[in-house]
Amino acid sequence: MAEGRALNLTMDFCLRVGELLLSSGAGAADVTSTMQTLAWHFGLRHPEIDVTFTSLSMSYQVSPEESPLMQVRHVKQRDIDYEDLTLVDHLVRDVIADQVDLAEARATLARIVSSGHSTPRWAVSLGWGAMCSGVGILLRGDVTVVAIAFVAAVCIDRLQLWMARRRLPFFYQQVAGGAVATLLAAAAAGVGLVENPSLVITANIIMLLAGIGFMGALQDALSGFYITAGARLTEALLATAGIIAGVSGGLTVADVAGVELRRVGMAASSWETLTPVALGAALCAGAFAFSSYAPRRIILPIALIAGLAISISQSISIQGFGRAWPTALAAFFVGVVSYTVSGRLRVPPLVVVVSAVVPMLPGLSIYRGLALMAEGGTTTSQGLLAMISAASIATALSAGVILGEYVAQPLRREASRLESRLAGPRLVGPLRYPGRRRRGRSRTVAS
Q: Which of 71, 100, 84, 116 is nearest to 20 (CA)?
C-alpha cells in the first residue's frame, strides 16, 4: 500500500471513530485520546487533533519539507446508541492488540455504522414507558400514576421520533414532549383518574432530561476542552428550556380548562420507602439502558447499581443532609463501581454511569419550580430557588460520577505520556496504549 494512500485511510478511520464516539456522548478528552492512540498504532507520530462539539479535524505532516495533510469530519447527528458505542470500543481495543489490520478495521466500522439493531423500534418505545413507570414507583405513585406515566412516555417517544424524521430541531421536540406530558396529566386529573398529576409530569420530565449531556459538558470543562464544554452546556440549557416551555404551556392550558395542576406533593422519605424507591430506580435505569440499545448483559448490573445508589442517596437525605450532597455521594459510588463492572462485562463505563444516574435527575425540582413561578407573587422566589436546586443536583450528579472515575482509574507509572497529558478519567476507550513497547515494529503507514 502506497504511503500516501495509507496515510489518508488511517486519518479517515481515526476521524470516523472519533465522530461516532463524540455523537454518542463521549467527552472530548476521550475522543482525542482514542484518536491519538489509533494514529500512534498505525505509525502516525504526534498528529494534530482538534475536537469541537460539531466537528473533528486531524492533520499530519510527514516531514518539515512536505506539506501537511488535513482532514475534517462534521458530527451531523447525536443519537444515544450504546450498542454502536460498545462495538466501536471493542474495535479500538482489537486494533491496539493487533488482532485486526487497518483494512479489516475500516470494514468492521462500516458494518457497525450501517447496520441496524435487533431490538425493534416499538420495543424501544415500550422501554421508555417502562422507564417512566419506574420513576412513578420511585416517586411513590399509585398504580394509576404508573400506568399514565407509561402511556405518556410512549406517546412522547413516538411524537419525538416523528418530529426527528422530519428534521425538526431538538428544542421543539423537547417542547412537544413537555406539553404532551402536562396535557395528558391534566386530562387524567380532569376526569378524576389521578389525585396528584405532578408525579406523572415529573416522571416524563426525567425521561426528557435523560437525553441531555450534562455529564459530558462537565467532563469537557474539567478536561480543559472549554469550547466543547460551552457548546455542550448551551445545548443542555436549550434542551432544558424546551422542557420548561412545554410544561409551562401545558400548565397554562390546564388553568384555562379549570384543571388544578399546581399542587406538588410526594410522600415523605422514610426508611420504609427505601425498598419501593430502590425498585423504581432499578426499573428506571434498566429500562433507560434497554431503550438506549445497551448490551443485554449490562442491563441487570445497571439496575442493581442504580438501586444501590438511590438507596445511598435516600439514606443520607433522611438524616437531614439535604439533596445535593447525598446525590453527589451516590453518584460518586456509581463512578467508582462502574469502572470495575464495565471492565468485567466489556462495555464502556459511560454506558453504566449515564444509565445509573438517570433515576436521580432533578425532575421534581424542575416541575416544582415551574409550578411556583407560574403562580406569581411571593412564590416566584421559591420557584427560582427550586430551579437553582435542580441545577445544583445536576451538577452534583456529574461531578460525583467523574470524581468516582478519577478514584477508580488510578494513575499508573507505566502509562504513556500521551495518556497522562489528558486531564480526565476515561469513560470510553482504552486506559493506556499497550503498543509502546512494540515501537520498533512496522506499521501500516510506515510500510
A: 84
